[in-house]
Amino acid sequence: MAVQKVFFHEGITPTDITLGEVQLNSELPVSAIEKLDISLKKLGFEIIDDRKSRIIERIKNLIITLVHHSDGPLNINISDYLSAEMNYEYNYLSNLFSEVEGNTIEKFFISQKIEKIKELLTYDELTLSQIAFKLGYSSVAYLSTQFKKATGLTPSYFKAIKANKRNRIEDL
What we know:
The protein is mainly alpha-helical. It has 2 domains: 2-42, no CATH class; 51-171, Homeodomain-like (Arc Repressor Mutant, subunit A). The chain has helices at 2-9, 30-42, 51-69, 78-86, 90-101, 105-123, 128-134, 140-151, 155-171; strands at 16-18, 21-23. The mean pLDDT is 87. It holds the Pfam family HTH_18. Residues 57-161 form the HTH araC/xylS-type domain. Keywords: DNA-binding, Transcription, Transcription regulation.
């Protein structure tokens, strides 16, 4: 909505705005792009105009949407999913991502899953088994191992810390 406001304020009507991407009917003059860039930077956004950066952002947005905004179980092969969604060979996407980000797509995917686990543990609405199923882990043990490797904490200890912080806030 914030990005849409900036475009409308500048008198530009996008055909579509999604996470990390704005579609326009025609090319903008350099002066309009510069004005948009200044306005967007004030909001913490930036215009990405080179092809490689756009591909990387699209990969990230697809993974974030998949992990954080899908309702069903996350039993998906990430390489097949990205290849199908982006119409590129996965090897090309993987090499490009690693070259630009200094990290692999798989590690980015795992980090997003870890963030989702933290969120779900904080909400305390699902059991660890349900979270493992929802995020496509083969077992609770595997989820716990990956979580501990990423955070240094077991899921149950993380959950206990969050519960303790919530209790203290409620006592205020």
